[in-house]
Amino acid sequence: MQSTKFQRQSSFRRGGVIPTAICLSKATISVGVLSMSVHAAEVGALYQLACLMLGGMLTVLSIRMISVASIETKKWSFEDVCEELFHPVMSIFTGFMNACVCLGSAAGYLIVCGQVFVVIFQADNATRNLFVVLVGIFVCCPMALARHVGFMRHLAALSVGALILLVIVVAWYMGDRGIDESVTTENFLLGPGGATFITYMNSINNMIFAYNNQFNVPQLTGELTPEPSRNGMTKVALLSTSISFLLYASVSILGVLAFGVAENQKDSLILDLMPVRKEIHVLISLIAVMFSVLTCFQFHIYPVRQFLAYLVRKARGRSSDDEKTDVVYFGRSLTRWYDIFCALGSVCLVVLIAVVITSLRAMLDFIGAFGAAYISFMVPPMWIIALRRKDEKNFSWFSREILFSVSFLALGLFLFVFGTYSAILPILGL
């Protein structure tokens, strides 16, 4: 009996493949799922599903590259790997980009919480802002102090279930009210027409952000048990990406059928469900969404903490090997004093962003193009090339691995430049 109990507990231990995959999928599935049907309504289900499949495959490859670099350098953050392979300046730039992505994502979660609060209570903008600030102080600040990403595995599993509940509610809405009258077979599959190059690029930006979980990969790679391995992280990548694809595809299809195409879609599914907010199962699903996005908060704050802690460490002339020497007691765990400062400072910055920016869709498009393309599709191939160049005798630019890495880097550069351009135009009103 005790042996069986131990096996059941250890199967979901911190660092196991399944809980790590759930944590990584939870870092992926959150705000992006709420606006997925908006893009599908503009470009059509076929293009959206093709983008999702392509994004999923690229994400698996990207995660594998990051895990290879982390394992071979034995470094577990973007900043430390970049310093090992390049230069501290590269570490600071990459850490800054990674922090921008995570700050924007975390702000998106608070924006969603504000939307849920408005939908449920019909609150005005001032009350919404007060609610966001209170959530940031009393919920996000304590969660941001956690030392390990893997400790969130149980909450991550529950929050994935919360988003599945949202998908079920959207399916109920379609079954109860029927397919929206604006939907035809042609515009469902191909879009309503009139979509421009900018529209299609923004859809790709949304796909990039939707799968963006690479910011947690070095840390989760280091937490794998019994030891970090390429095969283990490949399994994690395949499992987490498959979960994400199934949810995104379901929302893309059901959201368009339930709420229509083009301008019939609102900024997010939360606003689409406003007419039926008094239904008890809809209310429960909205509260579940709030729980889900707040659970995601820790996954995005941790990389920001790592970056700020890296800057403090460099300013003090310390290396990554000295990380565990300066600690103070905080509750039951040992936490570096500047980790506490960095965590709380990150949350305050996120709250400020969430209060100032209320347009969720514009934020997702811009962050997905600007930062996620760099972190997900440019940094990993550069790491692989730098690793292989260390072996000067056997290095060749024409080997399959290097040619693939260069092609991957070229794709990332395209998404970074043109994606940012297309995403910023709507924000500027052009």
UniProtKB/TrEMBL annotation:
Residues 15-424 form the Amino acid transporter transmembrane domain. The chain crosses the membrane at residues 21-40, 46-66, 96-123, 129-146, 155-174, 194-215, 236-262, 282-304, 340-360, 366-387, 408-428. It is found in: Membrane. It is a multi-pass membrane protein. Keywords: Membrane, Transmembrane, Transmembrane helix. Its main location: membrane. It holds the Pfam family Aa_trans. InterPro entries: AA_transpt_TM (IPR013057). PANTHER family: AMINO ACID TRANSPORTER. This is Amino acid transporter transmembrane domain-containing protein. The lineage of its organism: Eukaryota, Sar, Alveolata, Dinophyceae, Suessiales.
